[in-house]
Amino acid sequence: MLGLAIKGAVWIGFAGAFLGLGFSGLRVRPGELALLLLDMLVYRDPVIEPVTGWLLYLALPLALTGFVAAWFAGRSCLRRPAHDLLLSTLLLATWLFFGLNFAVFRYPWPWAEWTVRTPNAMVLAACAVGLTWLVIGRAFVLGPKRRAES
Fold first, then answer.
1. Beta-carbon count within 10 A of 55 CB
2. Which of 17, 43, 85, 133 counts the highest number of beta carbons within 10 A?
3. pLDDT for 41-91, tens place per residue?
4. Radius of gyration of the chain, Cα coordinates, nearest whole angstrom
């Protein structure tokens, strides 16, 4: 389960970048890709200070996903259904991807001056909210059913 959670988070988070690099013919390892994105966000056109960027764009997402993966690995002995862990991992990966993608889009708030990426960010936000709504709704539907069965 731990491996599945880590693989899912990595592939969801970097799927677009992997596809783009795959079609371009470049050969880039995941660590190089993370440093490339960090360089783009922090040094080339900085929106925040470099130290804050390293913490916010690299250290915090890695620490958060590592902590959640370890926590789920510790809870795997409780014999909980796998979809409980997968739904939580899906929410984490969705909002982590949304936050990092929002940073790549240069924070295109709808009430600020519109850029080419503002509609993309709004669609991504709507999809993330919709996915969260579906996952939470499923948890509320499945929760009472499990309590009734036990």
1. 14
2. 85
3. 788 777 788 888 888 888 888 888 888 888 877 776 666 667 777 888 888
4. 18
